[in-house]
Amino acid sequence: MPGRAAGDVSLSLDAWHGDDRDGSEPQREREARQAAAMEVCLNCPVMVACDAYANAVVAEDGKTRLAEPAGIWGGRLALERHRAFIKRRHEVAVAAPVRAVKTPQRLRVLEALAVHADAEAVAEAAGVDVRTANWQRSRLVTQLNLDKGSATRRELLAAAVERGLLDARVVVGDDGLVPAVPPPSPSSRLSSAGSEAGVDDAVLPSVPAVLRGRVRRPGRRRVQVMPGQLSLDDALAPVLNLFPNNEILESAA
Question: Does the domain at residues 98-170 carry the CATH identifier 1.10.10?
Answer without folding.
Answer: yes
